[in-house]
Amino acid sequence: GAPEEGWGRPSVAARRLRAERGKIAAEMERLLEAKMGTEQAMMKLSEDLDQQHVAICVERKKRLELEASCAELEATEEAKEAELEELRRKAAFMQAEVAKLSRGGLGWWSRRRAAAAVAAT
C-alpha cells in the first residue's frame, strides 16, 4: 500500500520508531530506577518500624516490671503502716498502764507491792 500520511518514507518512519522506542526505553529505565528507590525506602522504613516495635516491647516490659514493683512496695507500705499503727496502739495502752501503776492502787502489781510492804513491816 501507499505510505501513511505524516510518516513519509520508510526510513523516516523507522527513525521515528527508533526514536520513540529509545524514549520509551529511557522512560522505562527511569521508572525502574524510581521503583527500586521506592522499594529501598520502603525496606528501610520497614526495618525502622521493626526496630521501633522491638524498642516499644522492651519499654512495655520495663513499665510492667516497674508497675509490679510499685504495687509490691505499696502493699509492703500498707502492711508496715498497719504494723506501725498496731505498735502505736500497744504503746499507748502500755503508757496508760504505767500511769495507772505509778498512781498506785489501780493495778494488781501495785496492790501486790503494797501488800508486800505491809507484810515487811
How would you describe this protein?
The protein is mostly helical. It has helices at 10-103, 108-120. The longest helix has 94 residues, at 10-103.
Topology:
Blueprint: H1 10-103, H2 108-120
Q: Which features does this protein show?
A:
121 residues; single chain; mainly alpha
Total helical elements: 2
Helix content: over 70%
**Main structural class:** mainly alpha
Which residues sit in consecutive blocks of at least 5 with pLDDT less than 50? none
Strand content: under 5%
Q: How would you name the oligomeric state of the polypeptide chains in this document?
A: single chain
What would the average pLDDT be, to the nearest integer?
Answer: 87
Q: From N to C, what is the helix and strand string? A: HH
Based on Cα principal axes, name the global outline. rod-shaped
What composes the largest sheet?
A: none
Distance between the termini: 159 Å
Q: Indicate the radius of gyration in whole angstroms.
A: 49 Å
Beta strands, count = 0
